[in-house]
Structure formats: structure tokens, C-alpha cells
Design a protein that fits this description.
Strand content: 15-25%
Low-confidence stretches: 12-30, 45-58
Number of strands: 6
Strand order of the largest sheet: 1-5-6
Mean pLDDT: 79
Helix content: 25-40%
Number of helices: 6
Distance between the termini: 98 Å
Order of helices and strands: HHHEEHHEEEEH
Length: 207
């Protein structure tokens, strides 16, 4: 008669086997039960990836995102002064659209390609996030990946950088998110046209 192992020991052994398979230490036997378990794990993984992938961009937790979310979504303010929401001093603010390559960010900030990976480690990889950079006397004092759900700065149709005096935004409700929640756009109050917009206006006038 074989020895009966306590339930706690059986659970521990089962956990070790699963971890060993996951790390490639042991081959997975393709029994019908294992195949069912694999399909179940894959399904759970896909659901979790979709859920957290969508939500992560909405709830990125940098200090600027948290402060704006509190003002826009909790306090329901109709305007925000960005300089009052940042726990650091700055004199220039740069916003970069979703998917902006690191190379472009470094070019706009005057960072050499050699130092670019160290200075700008992140890149936006989905529609829900954009990159913010704040400088003081030409040096970066803060940077963060920002979730647009907190308050959407796009479209960035104004000249950068912004200053503490010019970074004042009206909060405008503009549709709903993919989950049916209100979407708030942050519209710059005193927007100066970008260089590209000025060139287009000049061409139109000359024509």
C-alpha cells in the first residue's frame, strides 16, 4: 500500500511541477487534462492582458497624472493651471503625442542621440498614453508617461514649450471613453500656432 501524502504536501508538489513546466525544467505531458488546463490558462492570460492593457494607459500613476485626474475627474474643475499641480519647479513643458519615437523627442529637446536612451527611456506604445517632459533652466526635472484618460492634452496644435504662465487649460467634456466614461479634453486657453501652422497660413496668404 502506497504512502498517503498530506494535502498540503500534495499542493506544494503540484505547485513545483507547474513552476518547473513554466520555466522549462520539465516537459509538459500532452494529456487531455493538461490540454484543457493549458487552454484555460491561455484564456485567462488573454483576458488579463486585454483588461490591464486597456486600463494601464488610463491610470498611469505619475504625479502629474494623479494631480490632473484629481482636478478633472474628482473635483470636476473647468480649468487647470498646470504649474499649480506639479510638485516641482519648471519653466518649460513639452507634450508628445502617442507613438512619438524617442528619437523625435530627443531632437525636439536638443538631446544628442548618444545620450538619448539614458535621458528618455520610455516611448508611447498605444493611443492611451503620451509623454510629458518638464525642464528647469534647460535641465529635465521631470518626465512621465501620461494616461490621456486623466485629461487629454491632444491635439497638440500649439507651439511648445509651454511656460507656467501659458500652461492654463480649459476642461471640456468631449464624448466618452471605450468604457463609456466621460472623456475630458484639456484645451490650451492662449494657444500660439505652431511653426507648421504659421507656414501653412503664410502659403495660403501668398496664394
Amino acid at each position: 500500500m502506497g504512502m498517503v501524502l498530506p494535502q498540503k504536501m500534495l499542493n506544494l508538489r503540484k505547485a513545483k511541477v507547474v513552476m518547473g513546466i513554466h520555466k522549462g525544467l520539465w516537459p509538459l505531458r500532452h494529456t487531455h487534462a493538461n490540454q484543457k488546463m493549458n487552454l484555460r490558462l491561455v484564456a485567462i492570460s488573454v483576458v488579463l492582458a486585454l483588461f490591464f492593457g486597456c486600463e494601464s494607459a488610463h491610470w498611469l500613476g505619475g504625479p502629474v497624472a494623479k494631480a490632473i485626474k484629481k482636478e478633472v475627474r474628482s473635483a470636476q474643475k473647468t480649468e487647470i493651471h498646470l504649474s499649480k499641480l506639479t510638485p516641482f519647479e519648471w519653466d518649460e513643458a513639452y507634450f508628445f503625442d502617442p507613438y512619438t519615437p524617442r528619437r523625435v523627442i530627443c531632437e525636439d529637446l536638443g538631446i544628442s542621440m548618444k545620450n538619448c536612451p539614458q535621458e528618455i527611456a520610455d516611448e508611447s506604445t498605444n493611443d492611451g498614453e503620451m509623454f510629458l517632459v518638464f525642464r528647469k533652466s534647460g535641465k529635465i526635472v521631470h518626465k512621465e508617461m501620461y494616461g490621456r484618460f486623466n485629461g487629454d492634452f491632444t491635439p497638440i496644435d500649439y507651439a511648445l514649450p509651454l511656460t507656467p504662465e501659458t500652461a492654463i487649460f480649459d476642461v471640456i467634456e468631449d464624448g466618452v471613453s471605450s468604457k463609456g466614461k466621460p472623456w475630458f479634453r484639456l484645451k490650451l486657453r492662449s494657444a500660439l500656432p505652431t511653426q507648421k501652422m504659421q507656414e501653412q497660413a503664410k502659403l495660403t496668404y501668398e496664394f
